[in-house]
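DUF1624 domain-containing protein structure dump, as promised
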Amino acid sequence: MTTSTLSSPAVSDALTEKPRISSIDLMRGIVMVIMALDHTRDFFHKDALMIDATNLEQTNPLLFFTRIITHYCAPTFVFLSGAAIKLSEQRKSKKDLSIFLLSRGLWLILLEITVIRFSFFFQLYYDVTIFQVIWAIGFCMILLSAVVHLPFRLILALGIVILLGHDALHLIRLQPQDPFYTLWTFTHQVGVAEFAPGKSAFVPYPFLAWFGIMLLGYAFGRWYTSSFTSERRRKLLLVTGSGAVFAFVVLRFINLYGDPAPWSEQKNVLFTFMSFINVTKYPPSLLYTLMTLGPVLILLAFMERWQSPTLKPFIVFGRVPLFYYVLHFYIIHATAIVLYMILQDKSLGEIDLHFDKGFGGITPGAGVSLGVVYVIWISIVVLLYPLCNWYNTYKSKHKNWWLSYL
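structure tokens r here:
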């Protein structure tokens, strides 16, 4: 492995105790910062709970692109998680890796339904539990704990088959009264599964398509091993990324397969373009995956040569992703509650936050403009940096087993 793939000179001291692939950390950090924009909008924007930002009959261009840019976060995060798993094979035996993936996956699912769920709702009624990206990553890791024992080419082939074929499964639509509805909801069909009266699970991240993305990320991680030079890897990244973008444009233009929501001509060129790129995230369609991961691969090729001190915050975020993820939800939600109390202009005893229903005290229609949301987003990211930098430094200097789980 050439030195350009490891931590750059700009990342010194605590960031270089052990070899890291800074381009992967950088990309992960960038999408995590973008992710915070989407979640800040969810809690602060006055229209967040009122309209669908990607519904062309309700949205406007600024709101639409604010939402669309965050589409790049989840697939990049899952894809790079797969790559990190492949790279860990250089330090672990297959048996040790399998055990770690199983335990790590179970831990992530536990976090999703406890710590992360509480950050959404600030209550413990468990009337609704949302199974989002952390659950999906956790369950995919559990599956991968078995799959890693298969031959590499078979793992790659399985990832390709899922990527290309899972959209055909949209033809299978089950209803809540069907016996396999809950299983199918967690596997492929976005929906709400009721476990008991008043207790349900909303599953926007069924695992199947995400598992395909993680498998492809696992295969992609091989490009970062010592058998690939930096130059060879850059060429592969550029060719594969460009090919994915080209395939997206062709398949989307044909409008026959790859996404359940076809594009159509709109009232003007801009809205027609918005319709063209308005692909399906839940679950991630083939076209959604090509549109998001194609540019990511191209950027990763250029990031191999990016060396600047200004990139350090993104690299820090990328090195403590779970810590950042959990922390940013609590900060965003708590700050939104404080702002909501201020906007009500009432005495403390008169304020009713309604934690027993809705989005953890956030009333639909309450909040601020999208411009103010951007200011709040940047402020929260700035606040997160010293906290994440402290934890990254602590993690790099300590070898406690539990640190690998956070």
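Residues 3-405 form one domain.
lmk if u need the other ones
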